[in-house]
Write a structure and sequence with these properties.
Shape: rod-shaped
Number of strands: 0
Structural class: mainly alpha
Oligomer: single chain
Helix content: over 70%
Strand content: under 5%
Largest sheet: none
Number of helices: 2
């Protein structure tokens, strides 16, 4: 084999090995940065807050509906009592 050809192959091989190594290091450092980030914790906290708010609003709506249902028959009985008294 030609010595220049071997040299070119070695040059290309080392070039790509360096490129792969630098990419792996970049990926590792990016993963470490993400793990150190407080974003995941903040997202979790906001998820809990939103779930609690949704539950609260749902309970509030249900209690409002129940209250409206109980007040409606009470109004009807009051009207019936007024009609019987006026007769």
């Amino acid at each position: 084999m030609n010595l220049a050809l071997i040299h070119d192959r070695m040059h290309i091989k080392t070039f790509w090995e360096k490129r792969i190594d630098s990419e792996c290091q970049h990926v590792e450092s990016e993963d470490q940065r993400r793990n150190k980030s407080a974003l995941k914790k903040l997202r979790g906290e906001w998820l809990v807050r939103l779930e609690n708010r949704t539950k609260h609003l749902k309970n509030l709506n249900e209690s409002y509906v129940k209250k409206a249902k109980t007040e409606k028959p009470a109004e009807q009985t009051a009207q019936t009592n007024e009609e019987t008294v006026s007769s």
